[in-house]
Amino acid sequence: MTATPAPTGTLDARYSRPDARPSRWGEVSEVLDTAETYWLSTVRSDGRPHVTPLIGIWDGTSLYFSTGDREQKAHNLATNPNVSLTTGNNALQGGLDVVAEGTAVRIGDPGRLASLAAAWVGKYGEVWRFEVRDGDFWHEGGGLAGVYEVTPTRVFAFRKGDDRFAQTGWRLG
């Protein structure tokens, strides 16, 4: 099997220091993989933005998150599945912030859900153990939750620091 080459990012000189270098995809993937919290941006039916923190999984290709059907983000996704997921840190003088844009697609396949449920426990511990029931996650503390996959079509990385400010972008898929 041939490994898929890492995508190549393009440095945006408008928002980067003159001597900046583009971020490497491996760094971006690591930030997405190790993040404990992501910020999901959706759009309400009246056009207003909605942003909420959540936990999720990055598998190297796609981001996954869950939400109950009664939550605002689930209502938003039903009318407009376009989302941004953001992670990084809130420090100005260091770190790498990442924004992934794409379309959220609800997953119902029991096998995939079981694999994702195991990934949630592996990343977040037993408190986030989900059962798979009727095409959703189920958790005693929260009931049923739909699981969504976002395969990014665009990704942006914002490197910060005294001499490292750089914005790199990727067009995927």
TrEMBL record:
Residues covered by region (Disordered): 1-22
Keywords, in A-Z order: Oxidoreductase
InterPro entries the UniProt entry points to: F420H2_bilvrd_red/Heme_oxyg, Pyridox_Oxase_N, Split_barrel_FMN-bd
Domain Pyridoxamine 5'-phosphate oxidase N-terminal: 27-128
Gene3D superfamilies: Electron Transport, Fmn-binding Protein, Chain A (2.30.110.10)
Keyword Oxidoreductase among UniProt keywords: yes
Stated name of the protein: Pyridoxamine 5'-phosphate oxidase family protein
Organism: Nocardiopsis sediminis
